[in-house]
Amino acid sequence: MDERILLDQEHKAAGSKFFLASMPDNHVKHLIKLAQDESLIDLLGWNTFFQPNETEEFIEAISSYAFPYSRQSQPIPFGIYLGVESFPIGYVVLKGLNRDLLTAEIGIAILDKKYTNKGYGSLALKRLIIYAFEELYIQRIGAVALLSNNRSINVFKNLGFLVREVMYKSWPMPNGELADMVLMELINDSINNR
What is the predicted pLDDT for the residue at 115? Predict the structure, then answer.
């Protein structure tokens, strides 16, 4: 990204703000370090082990998409920051943007275990959804999760995503097994009501 995008979001339970921002390479390297965790493979469905200099490969991995309406496009990844000068605790990404159909997919991971289950993921998704709907004029956002990842599925459902389809044995895991996936969607009703 040429220009640093900074989106702020209040976290009332924590009594503070946090930020979504585009990331320089050294911040992506920090996420790569946090992702060196075997348990993440079973949650995310892809091999999270990258070398520190494989920043482009890491961004490509978090930007893979599954919906048929998705297009090969430049992803829009954001680090999730507790402070403007800190390192990110995770990421959210808009990917597979289709400017013709005004659709995109969204992905997320809180990689710093100290901050999981504290609401940062839900709030980061909510903020990125608002950005996609209000500033990029996206009409439909898709999300994909492994059927076994109940936490992610519930986060998306709590944000208003509806299950569109369960795709059995459709996602190739790094170990070669095929996993079940849930496809969910959120429609921007405000676009249709303008």
Answer: 92
